[in-house]
Write a structure and sequence with these properties.
Radius of gyration: 19 Å
Structural class: alpha/beta
Cofactor: pyridoxal 5'-phosphate
Pfam families: PALP (PF00291)
Keywords: Pyridoxal phosphate
Number of strands: 12
Number of helices: 9
InterPro entries: Cys_Synth/Cystath_Beta-Synth, TrpB-like_PALP, TrpB-like_PALP_sf
CATH architecture of the largest domain: 3-Layer(aba) Sandwich
Bound molecules: pyridoxal-5'-phosphate
Strand order of the largest sheet: 1-2-10-7-8-9-12-11
Order of helices and strands: HEEHEHEHEHEHEHEEHHEEE
Protein name: Pyridoxal-phosphate dependent enzyme
């Protein structure tokens, strides 16, 4: 039996959607990562019970860290963007986590920069606070070992391709790392929004809203570029069609990054007849009811969508591009 709700929430489901397509479905990803990170920091004496853990988050990490702090008797302070919605804000308040929501800012780069600046101000005022640095500290990889074990146990030696959105890079990077310990042929496919600097697509803007949680306007230390075999850049519009199809066809109600991952996973599945393709569903669809699901009539049949195969970043174009990354280093 679980000793805390965070353990239950952190454990994903593995759902077989067809013979070679599997969904790794989280209620809220990052709970498993935050729990293991806090545990490790306590065990190694970096922090003590009652200390304050601090980070900036646009949403699901805030919730994950608040649950981990609740579990281990820590205080939690979040510098959030306006993507922290009212439901989460209320839960954080009752859980005892404090939240500062930064003023709305349409420029993502500025928004991220201002949040980091605010974190530095807080650290200057409270040097005893511990900054979790979810985007840079690979302590966030640790919790995914248990998830990799679960995948290994359930897929019974199948050759795997893992597909997932890349934000901090911890989930896809860690899962690939742990799976490759005994299956080095495991392929890793990263999914990005257009406009993200992480794999060099900052020059192609998506006119629609950004896909929450994936991509970045600044480089992140937790992204291990040399782990990725393939990259897909997917527009909001295509991801919307993916999300709606996933709900309609398979009854999985998930977020927009999942819709994008599902499109990429179906594509990779069709190209590799021997492989089982597993894609990450990082959150549920509730946050996306108005922005995505209410627009379900705009969804196009996903069979009509195909990526443009590009050889380099110059070729990237909306609505969907695919590139062999070949475990290369970060873009210069
Ligand atoms: C909805 C969603 N999908 C995917 C991701 C990417 O996960 P990671 O930060 O582990 O790369 C995030 C991260 O915040 C997210 O919020």
């Amino acid at each position: 039996m679980d000793q805390h709700i965070a353990e239950a929430i952190g454990r994903p489901d593995l759902i077989r959607l067809d013979d070679r397509l599997v969904c790794l479905r989280f209620e809220t990803m990052k709970v498993v990562s935050a729990l293991a990170a806090v545990r490790h920091l306590l065990d190694t004496g970096v922090v003590r019970r009652g200390d304050t853990l601090l980070d900036s988050s646009s949403g699901i990490y805030a919730y994950a860290l608040a649950l981990a702090c609740h579990r281990y008797g820590m205080r939690c302070h979040i510098v959030g963007s306006t993507t922290v919605d009212d439901t989460l804000r209320t839960q954080l308040a009752v859980l005892g986590a404090t939240l500062e929501r930064m003023e709305p800012c349409s420029d993502l780069k500025l928004d991220q920069k201002r949040r980091v600046e605010r974190v530095h101000e807080i650290l200057a005022e409270h040097p005893g606070h511990h900054w979790m640095r979810q985007y840079h500290d690979d302590v966030h990889y640790l919790g995914y070992r248990a998830v990799a074990d679960l995948i290994r146990g359930a897929t019974d030696g199948a050759e795997l391709t893992l597909v997932g959105g890349v934000g901090s890079g911890a989930s896809t990077g860690a899962l690939a790392h742990y799976l490759r310990e005994d299956a080095p042929g495991t392929e890793l496919v990263g999914v990005q929004p257009f406009g993200s600097v992480t794999f060099g697509a900052e020059h192609v803007a998506d006119p629609e809203i950004i896909i929450a949680g994936i991509g970045s306007s600044i480089p992140f230390g937790n992204v291990r570029h040399a782990s990725y075999d393939t990259l897909h850049w997917i527009s909001f519009e295509a991801a919307l069609s993916g999300s709606v199809d996933l709900l309609r066809r398979h009854a999985v109600f998930a977020g927009l990054s999942t819709g994008a991952g599902y499109l990429a996973a179906r594509w990779e599945r069709a190209r590799s007849p021997r492989r089982t393709v597993l894609f990450v569903a990082a959150d549920t669809g509730h946050r996306y009811v108005d922005s995505v699901y209410a627009r379900h009539r705009e969804a196009v049949p996903i069979g009509s969508l195909a990526p443009r195969q590009v050889a380099g970043r110059d070729g990237l174009a909306l609505p969907w591009s695919r590139m062999d990354w070949n475990r290369a280093d970060p873009p210069s």
